[in-house]
């Protein structure tokens, strides 16, 4: 750790940077990024001070790469999750939950290079634990531990990666994953096609605009690499080079293959002719006749699988959203069959589809469960993970654009009092309404001002107010106010429940 | 860490213990406890082996004190949470979420002795982090950080305590908390009475049987201690001695006060006369006239507050569930006003109420937010935490008793085929049904046996099956089977959706 004086210097410098950016009216994202650095430095300073001086004031923040969800954000999050879950349930998925941490050895050797991003817990005596990195490995552990050979399950929960996230681009160290997986030994490509269908239903139900689901097959990739002359020891590393094609141009990827991964230019060029291909079933047919691929067992197997899944996608009417794309590689090592990834297409008004990034992905992983089974018994699995954090961000941005106010409570009726000393009546009326299942609140002050109470209703979007007044109490009535129209009507005290039931039903029927 | 040979010895010994218990047909709980110890030892051995030999087979388990939730358990958990949330929403609560970990310094100095139970993350460079211990401290941090001075929020999330939990008694190291809090400067006891009301509504809606909500006040406790002659430095430690009265007899607690906490017998006896008192508002009146208490400012203040809250509880009709109980102390240091705790009453057939333990609790904490604010600005808070894990356990036990089978999916219609080669028709029909919003599944085998398909429907409690057959396809009809009655009717292919809508609505209307 840096010493205090050094950190104080850095804080001063960083403060200047932030001030300059603000003065120059730079973009919000840019300012936010530099402010985040500043807050980190302040936290470091506070840690340092605490270490030397004992407990003290500290910077009030959430840990790096994490955030709180405000009530507004929670409402959006819940709406998105409800829609996603309803699709999972429509396809018969059960749900499970696993602990937030696992024995470290459960995670060891599953994520390749990314293992360095795993959060470890401090050794406080006892077991050595790590926070989960995804939901797939705990799912495989769960299946092996409980000897489950078939299940269709969804799991929505937070996972943890010590990445250097760009928060302004919606990436975090603590984030939700939202997984749907089908485990079991079944006939080829049937569960696989359903996973693609699930992606389609979710993106459509969330109204995410136009998108493409790219498909490819690991066996085809391997076969293609082999046919192009890549030694098998380099399949995975060439695979991750190909994976970069969604962000980098071919020339750059080719350079990496030659300079860093040690391929000859000739071999790289051969790969290049393939990975730039994409299409539908006619491309499968074309490649099945390709001189090199047609002689490669793995490639043919992959192509036959693609042919089958494309047929099933026809039956499931997902074909129009699908693209067989030889450049799709997916980062994770554990995939063994079909892989897919959905990308949102940006604004198409200028005639060009601009990809705004991956929003769902997955594939088949037939060997992961066996890594946990003492007898190496395999349970074939295929699944999909929805990029729910990106979807939250898109939704938040949408709502910000249309400036729609999101209600964060569901209160239907506000009980107000027009004069002082009606506190007891207010409480009794609230109690009666709660008993009848209405969502109700009233002021926590004994004698609040009527205007303040009505203002609260308007601010919070509460549709109805019941106003207690002395003259009304004497007449045996209550004033019922429609908050939007401000129309007030008198209702007999004994008929309040009945009348409210009618009114609330009306409000709930308005979409 | 012990060395390998030593651990192997211990495993052998522990294995013998387990075998003996099983042979002696000891209770499940006892056996489970010893088996847990055995599994821990095996995990230690595996860690040890891995350290010396590199990756190897290891014991497949979740970390100590944690568990997976099976689909059955998830269904129960979701039902309970839905009911709890609906009460929170009825009272106008918004929801928030915070990260699973906090800067360690956020938690420091908030939990007294229990701080040793906090899970720390390993220092991997950067900030020093700990898993959250409860939801109250992160809530206070959230308020101070966002300068929020009033909010009514609920938060349902997991918290972490490195306790030595008795899993057989439903206690875990990872467990859910379910909190409802009202923050803001309001008139006395109004939000407090609503928290008590919320407990009542939740326990009633969950049908938890009879229960008592005990109430007390920290100011009354302090005043009583002072009046009895306890030095103020010992208030909190005597408070935690009193807190044990729900589990230990007075004589034991008295002994602790004298031997461990250094009170004289006379002072302890004076406390004893008070803490054995409980009652309703008549007890408040009696104590207001008590020679010692009536002269103590703090005690009188506490009693006046009790008087007010009991009146409000009358208005909210919670009085019949309430007991003003001077032995209620609550463990946490941060309470500053009213405190409460709901206990379930066990079987009362033998004329005696047996407490089966605390199921909800909370109180007022006016100084916690100020601990995070740079200017020590206070935000008064009062809240309640529902002991949701205990409720899950009670519910699971109930369902086990009545042997009700819990459905873990919501599938409404199963699409089956009577002969081979109807795979395409099956997929197309499923697709049509999904499009129309039905919850549908079919076999992932191309040519499954009809009996196996129908058996699946019965096992899973799927109410309806559509059976595709060649002769029906030629006739332009589909067979619709009511799975429970096994009655089959033919429906025109073009009217399947319409007919299903009717049938499914019927099933969904049955409670």
UniProtKB/TrEMBL annotation, chains A, B:
Residues 3-59 form the WHEP-TRS domain. GO terms for biological process: histidyl-tRNA aminoacylation; mitochondrial translation. PANTHER family: HISTIDINE--TRNA LIGASE, HISTIDYL-TRNA SYNTHETASE. Residues 37-395 form the Aminoacyl-transfer RNA synthetases class-II family profile domain. Keywords: Aminoacyl-tRNA synthetase, ATP-binding, Coiled coil, Cytoplasm, Ligase, Nucleotide-binding, Protein biosynthesis. It holds the Pfam family tRNA-synt_His. It is an enzyme of class 6 (ligase). It comes from the Eukaryota. Belongs to the class-II aminoacyl-tRNA synthetase family. Gene3D superfamilies: Anticodon-binding domain, Bira Bifunctional Protein, Domain 2, S15/NS1, RNA-binding. The keyword Cytoplasm applies. GO terms for molecular function: ATP binding; histidine-tRNA ligase activity; RNA binding. The keyword Coiled coil applies. Residues 21-51 form a coiled coil. This is histidine--tRNA ligase. NCBIfam families: hisS. SMART domains: WHEP-TRS (SM00991). It catalyses: tRNA(His) + L-histidine + ATP = L-histidyl-tRNA(His) + AMP + diphosphate + H(+). One of its GO terms (cellular component) is cytosol. Its EC number is 6.1.1.21.
